[in-house]
C-alpha cells in the first residue's frame, strides 16, 4: 500500500526586525495594564478584597517558626530540596571539570548512529516486516 504525499509550498513568514520584536510586547503589556487600570480603578475596588491578608500573615509566621521542627519539612520538603541542590551542584562540578574544551569535545562525539539505526528497525521487526 502506497500513500501519495502532496508537496505544498511553505507558508510565507512576516519578517520581524529587532525593533518589532521589542515594540510589540511593550505595546501589548502597556495596553493590558491600561485595561486593568480602567477595570480595577484607583484605588482597587473593595469587591476585590477577599479579606485573606490576616490568614496569609499567620500562615507565613507559622511556616517561619516551624520549618525546622515540623515533620512535613524535616521528612519531605527538606530532603527534596537537598537532593535537587545536590543534583545542580554535581552538574556544575562536572561542567567545571570538563572546562570549555571538554564540553566542545563531548559535543563533537555526537550520538551513536548504529544504535539509532537499530532503534528505527524495531517497529519494522515488531510488525513482521524486518
Mean pLDDT: 83
* Radius of gyration computed on alpha carbons: 29 Å
Helix segment tally? 4
- Count of DSSP E strands? 0
- Overall morphology: extended
Element order, helices and strands? Answer: HHHH
Terminal Cα separation, in Å?
A: 17 Å
Secondary structure category? mainly alpha
Secondary-structure map:
Layout (H helix, E strand, L loop, with lengths): L17 H23 L12 H14 L4 H39 L3 H15 L3
Structural summary, described in words:
The protein has 130 residues and is mostly helical. It has a domain of 30 residues. The chain has four helices and no strands. The longest helix has 39 residues.
Task: Name a few traits of the molecule.
extended, 4 helices, 130 residues, mainly alpha
How would you summarize what this structure contains?
The protein has a domain at 18-47. The chain is 70% helix and 0% strand. The chain contains four helices and no strands.
Amino acid at each position: 500500500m502506497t500513500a501519495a504525499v502532496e508537496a505544498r509550498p511553505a507558508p510565507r513568514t512576516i519578517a520581524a526586525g529587532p525593533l518589532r520584536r521589542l515594540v510589540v510586547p511593550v505595546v501589548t503589556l502597556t495596553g493590558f495594564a491600561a485595561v486593568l487600570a480602567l477595570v480595577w480603578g484607583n484605588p482597587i475596588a473593595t469587591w476585590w478584597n477577599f479579606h485573606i491578608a490576616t490568614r496569609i500573615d499567620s500562615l507565613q509566621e507559622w511556616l517561619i517558626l516551624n520549618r525546622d521542627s515540623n515533620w512535613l519539612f524535616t521528612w519531605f520538603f527538606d530532603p527534596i530540596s537537598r537532593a535537587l541542590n545536590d543534583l545542580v551542584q554535581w552538574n556544575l562540578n562536572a561542567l567545571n571539570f570538563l572546562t570549555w574544551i571538554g564540553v566542545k569535545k563531548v559535543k563533537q562525539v555526537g550520538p551513536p548512529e548504529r544504535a539509532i539505526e537499530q532503534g528505527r528497525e524495531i517497529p519494522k521487526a515488531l510488525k513482521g516486516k524486518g
